[in-house]
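Regression test attached.
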Amino acid sequence: MASLRDIKNRINSTKSTQKITSAMEMVSASKLNKAEQNAKKFVPYMEKIQEVVASIAGGNTGADHPMLQSRPVKKTGYIVITSDRGLAGPYNSNVLRALYQKVQKEHSSKDEYTVLPIGKIGREFCKKNGLPIVKDVTGLPDQPDFAEIKEIASYAVKLFADGEIDELHIFYNHFISAISQEVTQKKVLPLTDIDTEGKNLTSYEYEPEEEEILKTLLPQYAESIVYGALLDGKASEHASRMTAMRSATDNAGELIDDLTLSYNRARQAAITQEISEISAGAAALE
Amino acid sequence: MTHRLLRAQGGVSLKTLNVSVVTPDGPALEGSYEMVSVRAESGELGILPGHIPLVAPLTISAVRLKKDGQTDYLAVSGGFVEVRPEQVTILAQAAEQPSEIDVDRAKRAKERAEQRLNLAKSEDIDHRRAELALQRAVNRIDISENR
């Protein structure tokens, strides 16, 4: 049996770990709150841009643009949104597993796809598993601005426009609630499935021409999809970390209980032994 | 508010425009105005209530919003204007009111962009980016200084 002092030490170290995890839980809870607000603030922009894109692309105006057309897929780009730090439960592993399985299933050689990881964990995963990376972004703050994601988003859109890739997919954790997130895969480009139903489409005048407008509008639209996914992913990250930290705190509590029990047992055993030694000594003197 | 009052009193509807400016980081401005002037890529556009539906991309410029003889300004970069008879929506990647502009930051950005323009004459992507950055910085400085 471990000595009294060993058990005491373990209890103390578990207690300080518990303090850290419960602090992290609270921090994540407040970050989650903020991230949800950010995601909400983004909604009006997304809805409006969707409406305009749907009006232009859905109307029988004959407007056309390479981003609206599927072409034979020679190379696919994947954006994957992960966090910079771990300790977020299954947040990163789920999304990376989904990506890895997809890549294994769909592609036979490394020339057929490329990955644009966001977040350190995603970048390290790709490096370790030999997935080709064209560009990565790390060190995004917990409340990212559009400007911070714009670079990789426009880069990805440019790859598509230049014909380097023929499809662009994004993998991220969709935020459902604080305890539930779902790995989601979305096709960003080409924009073939623009939902035009159920929206009140307006027929606009265009200044200058529709094609010109699509040229600037569609890249912006694609970039906003990426940004929306990032905001969603951030909310999921904080939620996932919060849940992970809560269960870590609970587990630490259980561990402390168990350790305290064996500490008391060991203490009792030591006392019993001492008494029996004393009484044995006294008996020997008689 | 005036807009709603007018409508409530006499059903007069086409006196003002509802203007909303939305960016990915949230709504930047919401209000009703008598006239909106924007600089589109094809030229200056003045929008009055009752305008036909229109979509036009905007340059990096100032949006002018007129109400009761007063003009409000807004710096926009990279955006669109969507016009409906009573509603004007500006979708911009960034939009700031003069009071929100960080002039020092804009000045630093301007210097940086100028330096980069001097250095990177050869490479066209960087050149283009630096040019855009310069335009944004100059636009912000102009708007915050002139009001």
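Expected vs. actual: identical. Chain B touches chain A at residues 20, 22-27, 40-42, 45, 52-57, 78, 80, 82-84, 89, 91, 93-94 (CB under 8 Å).
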